[in-house]
Amino acid sequence: MKGFKKYLALILGAAMIFTLAACGGGSSSEEAATDEAATEEVSGGDASVSAAYDKLLEGLNGDAVTDGEEIVVATSPDFAPMEFVDLSRSGDEQYVGYDILLAKYIANHLGKKLVIKPMSFDAVMTAVATGNADMGISGFSWTAERAKNYFITDWYEAGDNETEQVIITTKANEGKLTSADNYSGLKVGAQGGSLQELLVNEQLVNKGAELVLMQDLNDLCTALLTGKIDALAVAQGNGDSFVSANKDELVFTGFQFEIDEKYKNNVVLINKDNEELGNQVNEAIAQQKKEDLADTWYEACQLLGQIKTIDELGYDENGNKITEAAE
Predict the structure, then answer these.
(1) pLDDT-derived band of residue 119, with 50, 70 and 90 as boundaries?
(2) How many Cα atoms are found within 13 Å in the side-chain-facing hemisphere of 74?
(3) Cα dihedral sign for 221, 225, 227, 233?
(4) FRET label pair with 311: which of 77, 150, 229, 271, CA 20 to 30 Å apart?
């Protein structure tokens, strides 16, 4: 449970703090104490967790030269390692993850000051459509519906977060949900408006599964832990974060969705009428690919999200990648 509480403190935004803390149980006063203790533990007791991420952040901050104008990015910070909250940080710096690094990289390319607007997943799309945010960067996959309503950028690589779409469940169901036929009569959770919703509808509902939608992934995790749903459809990276934080309660089912190539990477959502910005963002994404930054970013965010350890990823305590030459 200690690891779970630490996870809660890390990935929870201020607007969602009491909802997610309730997943670990306790009164509001106990929740506040848990949050404070977990923040102190992460920031003081395990500096190596954030070392690699901090180096990347410092580099991006050092490269920033702005013209004074802002670029507003909407994101739903409930999706480690792509976007989540580190309560040991303050201001916009508390929003961390691969997509946040990408947002900073794009802002630098544009010469703008980055402003992060945290909100629910569905609200991100609304904010972009209504002009209340310039971009939506929140682990979005390409879908035909989004292509109709937004300027969809070129894809960017996001580790195994989109290439593998999986299902997690409780220990009680371990080994029982390996094929689509096993889900008949079961409640399978997914985030509303997500790729996972589409996949459950296409591949499990026709096998008798009942789709349960919520807007917040942490609420879905709570629902799974408390028996309100039987299984939860997630991207692989997000599944890693939930399972690693709840090793005694949650497991991967072994089931993987069949994924069309067009869904296998992430995109940025931009207002349909802002083609100029869309083209500029595509330039930044192309440069990010040219510089081959994806794997380094993703690993640093796995470390920060407590998903994998420095030993698993080959990093030292100072956040440096261990190479064969260094060994």
Answers:
(1) very high
(2) 22
(3) positive
(4) 77
**Measured distance CA(273)–CA(226) in Å, rounded:** 44
> In 74-206, where does DSSP find H-type helix?
98-110, 121-130, 144-149, 195-203
CA dist., res. 117 & res. 122, Å (int):
13
Check residue 4 and give its pLDDT.
34
Length of the chain (residues) = 327
Burial class (CB in 10 A: 0-12, 13-18, 19+), 49: buried
Beta-bridge partners for 187 = 210
- Relative to beta strand 165-170, strand 231-235 is antiparallel
Residue 148 and residue 151: Cα distance in Å, rounded?
Answer: 8
Give the separation between CA 220 and CA 238, rounded to whole angstroms: 12
Q: Cα–Cα distances in Å, from 102 out to 13, 136, 196, 212?
A: 19, 11, 23, 31
CA 301 to chain centre: 10
Give tens-digit pLDDT for 236-280. Answer: 989 999 999 999 999 999 999 999 988 888 999 999 999 999 999
Record the pTM.
Answer: 0.81
Pairing type for strands 135-141 and 150-152 reads: unpaired
Over residues 106-117, the mean pLDDT reads 97
CB 100, CB 114: distance < 8 Å: no
Tracing tokens 């330039």 back to the chain, one arrives at 283
Structure tokens at 73: 């990015």
Task: Please give the pLDDT value at position 16.
Answer: 34
